# Entry
Amino acid sequence: MIQRGYVDADEALKTEKTKDDLILFAKGEQPFMLTGAWAAPRLRDLQPKFTFSIHPYPILEDGCAMVINIDTRISVNANSPHVKEAKQFVEYLTQKDVLWKFVNSQSSFSPLKDEQMAQDIAIQPMEPYLTNGRSVIGADDNLIYPIWNLTRESTQKLLKKEDRASVLADLQKQLAQIRKENSHEDDN
# Structure
């Protein structure tokens, strides 16, 4: 993407994610932006002079894949003097109609089995990917890998025009080290 001119590497290195990138894209001078569905309301608030839609990544030889992040977590502090009230609030937030209002306001995806899609027209192209087997979880707390750190580090190296093969070799080395460290922990 860098070689084809789709990404200005120098600009990308100094761009703050989900802030500067939204502003740059809203000006209409960028061909695309990598972001999540949840950025649609924020982008719309910038009042771009064009319509936009959000699509899965076109990374497969025979089509696209959608990356889903599960990152809205709710918890109650067991040591809080207001545990009862906090639990009541969680019960309120997880009611089907309240949860749906939250999902819809965030242009996000519902965890409910009813397979409703948020009403935001910008994310409608992603609907089939919720059930067609072409979606993956972007990060999972059960994974032993620091996915976001590893990908950010590798991306920055590529933006700095480091050789693709050396970036990949370094990533593989880091993954092997993480596996080795975790296998030692399992032995203990």
